[in-house]
Write the structure tokens for this entry.
Amino acid sequence: MKILHTSDWHVGKVLKGASRADEHAAVLAELVEITRAEAPDLVIVAGDLFDTAAPTPAATRLVTGALTALRGTGAEVVAIAGNHDNGAALDALRPWADAAGIVLRGTVRRAEDHLITGETSGGERWRLVALPFLSQRYAVRATEMFELSAAEATQTYADHLSRLLAALTAGFASDDHVNLITTHLTVVGATTGGGEREAHTILAYAVPATIFPASAHYVALGHLHRAQTVPGPAPVRYSGSPLAVDFGEGGELSQQLAAGSGGAGEPSSSVTIVEVAADRAARTREVPVTAALPLRTVRGTLAELAELTPGDAWLRVFVREQPRAGLREEVQDLLPRALEVRIDPELLPAGGGGGQVAARAGRSPSELFAEYLNVRGHDDAPVQALFEELYDEVVSG
């Protein structure tokens, strides 16, 4: 059978104040076209359909429209909630999804609710464990569908996930079914993309790949935005996001690059195509998704930045100039798509301007502010004058 694996759409994402609604619409339209061209038997969307737990009506229309269009290609469609999604709200859409022939799972309920079975047009039978994202608190509640001892109830997040998956995959065996798992979590040893929600990525939320059984033919993961395969007892893979979500996922653009060229080390956005059979190991390949604008980081002086031709990319700029009033506006005049402008960290004082703290006694606010600017390497007369003007307004008011 053939599977298209995608995840982490993050529809509704606003990047430094800039809407990406048009990009998301273009990316999902391209995803539908890839599905038509590849003709998979099954499409798996492994979580984070939305960027927020309270999506706008427009974002909801875009996601439900994309899922409907994917189903319209003839593929079976299974989507689960990620940590950015509101699982209960997705479950509220299940009557619509069921009527449309789409499997949608937002929260963990009965064990049998998360084992999906099907058969391809070629007669290949498959079963899929569809497990939405679970927080620490709900991981314990989810395992209450099985009997736990007092000691088991106090074990780690990874222990609970391992027990839950073991119960849900108990029927996996070396028979004539293709055994699949999809879930939304962090596997130890995987590489983050840069835009993930840190609280749900590190520390107690990271689990070993050994929680997945060797009897699984393929494990389709969501949560990490970089496409990658993770070593494990079974084939374990993140599809990555079909568009770069945050600047941490973009590349670096050097002064020599011309418009339309890629940045150094720039990861490509893609979906994963999986071909697998009950008696054959999964083979994967990436299909690039190109509709979204790239995110790139650029560095340089104003003169160097003026020589760049970054095309339509969204930019994060590390400017190699001393801080001064109006510098951001100067950079944005040169690079209108600069959404984030910062002083290059290499130019800032080490340790955030350490040194002896200025004594406050007997000194005016203007003198203290001037000392602060000096310590921060931002000795700029217009900024000092603006502070004094604002201070006078506050005091006189």
Summary: Residues 352-397 form one domain. The radius of gyration is 25 Å. Confidence is low (pLDDT under 50) at residues 150-154, 198-202, 255-265. The chain has three domains: 2-288, 294-347, 352-397.
